[in-house]
Description:
The protein is mainly alpha-helical. The protein folds into two domains: 2-64, Orthogonal Bundle (Helicase, Ruva Protein, domain 3), CATH 1.10.8.50; 68-110, CATH 4.10.910.10. The chain has six helices and two strands. It has helices spanning 15-19, 27-37, 50-63, 67-84, 87-94, 108-111; strands spanning 2-4, 7-9. The chain has a two-stranded antiparallel ribbon. A hairpin with a 2-residue loop joins strand 1 and strand 2 (7-9). GO terms for molecular function: rRNA binding; structural constituent of ribosome; tRNA binding.
Amino acid sequence: MARIAGVNIPTNKRVIIALQYIHGIGPKFAKEIVEQVNIAPERRVNELSDAEVLKIREVIDAGYTVEGDLRRQTSMNIKRLMDLACYRGLRHRRGLPVRGQRTHTNARTRKGPAKAIAGKKK
C-alpha cells in the first residue's frame, strides 16, 4: 500500500483515482500530477515502482497544498472571517448558510434537526 502525503492510497485502483483519496487533490490535479511524472493514466498503483511513487510524492510536496496544511489554511480563513465580524463570519459563527441560501424552510444541514416550538399547535 503506497503512502503519499500521510494517506494510504488504495493499491488496486488506477493512479488518477487513487490520488483523489488525498484531501486537496481532485480529478484535475490528479491528471496533472500523472502527466508531470510521465505515468500512463491506465496504470494501477500496485504496478508502480518505488521510484515512481517517490516522484509522485515529491511533485505533490513541491507544488500542492494538501491534507493537514490545506485543512489548517481553510480553518484559518474561516476564523479570520469570524474575527473580522463581517457578514460571512457572522453566518459561520451562528452556523447558518453563508452564501445567500434561504433559511425559512430549508438549510437543515447547517441548522441541524428541526426543533419543536411550544404553543405552535392550533
